[in-house]
């Protein structure tokens, strides 16, 4: 009789034993009874001063833009919502909601276009309302594309379709209350609850007063030369009273009190505040010195009047270059408080508005760095929070 190979013999014995055991009563256990799944929604804790929103444009595939909800005290990601395409986000001043402006197409990348303003519950991250807009500007995310009044009653949406305009949305009714045409002007800088200001191509400002469903527009004289030394759109505004510090490419700071009759004070130099020579403008474009640059390159702590600006060394047309340092300046005394060296260049600076403020920077890898804004010391880092971290939004900002 021919012998089976050892391996085959072993397998045969195992199968025979299995069959034999199966013949002897209950060899197999009964199938488990599965419980019915129940879905629920976990609620986040109420919004705090150090719970921030972080805008990620995801530039390499902007359809996938998103907004992260971050606990900055723990360096912990709490949640995320979509913000596509080239979306924008703004938060209610008291943290009762946050709003995302975004654009979608019925067939993904084509078809019918829909411009939307989504209202989110800040604790469940559910959409409370999805308002269809007349349009919105499809430009890279800027804080001043989408802003809110001091009491949270109005959201201002900047649009360029078919001309420059601002759509005023009533947050109580979620309805469009007004369209304001602003030819040659762009973006919104709110002042209190009375209106907003836009910046114009000739170096002037357009002031829009809102009253009884009407918009009255006044204009300032040009205060900067957009060809020689333009100002950054990302200059910080204190929304409660409209005080704004417009920062120019060369590093001039224009203190401005926005209103129906906006007043612009004499400019002062960031470099002179640091004991240096003022940086030249476009008439001397190859001079290398410290200059402001980046994307959301500045932030203001309202209570102290401390201005945080991303700075780098470069020539005049390097205004998009990320900062290697953050300079903290006193806007009342026009003096430099400290220079904060960054571990990685950052195109973003953010700050919270509480008595113990935090500062935020980022890098090309999408890391978020969290700093003690009072001491200038780094506290923690969130590695690769996203792809393109453009700016942060804090409570009361």
From TrEMBL:
It is found in: Periplasm. It comes from the Bacteria. Keywords: Electron transport, Oxidoreductase, Periplasm, Signal, Transport. Residues 1-29 form the signal peptide. InterPro entries: Host-pathogen_enzymatic-act (IPR051200), Metamine_DH_Hvc (IPR009451), Quino_amine_DH_bsu (IPR011044), WD40/YVTN_repeat-like_dom_sf (IPR015943). Pfam families: Me-amine-dh_H. Its main location: periplasm. Belongs to the aromatic amine dehydrogenase heavy chain family. This is Methylamine dehydrogenase heavy chain.
């Amino acid at each position: 009789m021919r012998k089976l190979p050892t391996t085959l013999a072993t397998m045969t014995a195992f199968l025979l034993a299995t069959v034999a055991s199966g013949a002897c009563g209950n060899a197999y256990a009964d199938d488990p009874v599965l419980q019915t799944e129940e879905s629920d929604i976990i609620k986040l804790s109420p919004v705090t001063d150090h719970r921030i929103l972080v805008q990620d444009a995801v530039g390499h595939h902007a359809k996938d833009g998103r907004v992260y909800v971050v606990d900055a005290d723990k360096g912990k990601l709490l949640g995320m919502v979509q913000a596509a395409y080239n979306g924008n986000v703004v938060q209610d001043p008291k943290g009762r909601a946050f709003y995302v402006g975004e654009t979608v197409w019925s067939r993904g990348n084509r078809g019918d276009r829909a411009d939307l303003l989504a209202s989110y519950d800040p604790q469940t991250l559910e959409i409370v309302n999805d308002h269809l807009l007349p349009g919105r500007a499809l430009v890279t995310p800027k804080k001043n594309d989408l802003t809110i009044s001091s009491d949270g009653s109005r959201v201002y949406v900047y649009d360029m379709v078919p001309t420059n305009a601002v759509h005023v949305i009533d947050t109580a009714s979620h309805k469009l209350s007004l369209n304001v045409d602003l030819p040659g002007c762009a973006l919104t800088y709110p002042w209190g609850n009375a209106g907003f200001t836009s910046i114009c191509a000739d170096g002037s400002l357009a002031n829009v007063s809102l009253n009884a469903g009407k918009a009255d527009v006044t204009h300032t004289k040009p205060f900067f030369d957009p060809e020689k030394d333009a100002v950054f759109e990302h200059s910080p505004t204190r929304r409660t009273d409209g005080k704004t510090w417009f920062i120019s490419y060369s590093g001039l700071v224009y203190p401005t009190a926005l209103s129906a009759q906006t007043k612009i004070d004499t400019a002062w130099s960031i470099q002179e505040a640091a004991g240096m020579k003022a940086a030249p403008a476009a008439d001397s474009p190859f001079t290398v010195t410290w200059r402001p640059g980046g994307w959301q390159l500045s932030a203001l702590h309202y209570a102290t009047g401390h201005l945080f600006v991303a700075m780098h060394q470069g020539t005049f047309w390097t205004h998009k270059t990320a900062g290697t340092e953050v300079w903290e300046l006193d806007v009342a005394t026009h003096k430099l408080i400290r220079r904060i060296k960054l571990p990685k260049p950052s195109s973003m600076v953010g700050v919270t508005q509480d008595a113990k403020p935090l500062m935020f920077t980022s890098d090309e890898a999408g890391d978020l760095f969290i700093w003690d804004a009072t001491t200038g010391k780094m506290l923690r880092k969130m590695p690769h929070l996203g792809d393109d971290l453009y700016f942060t939004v804090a409570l009361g900002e």
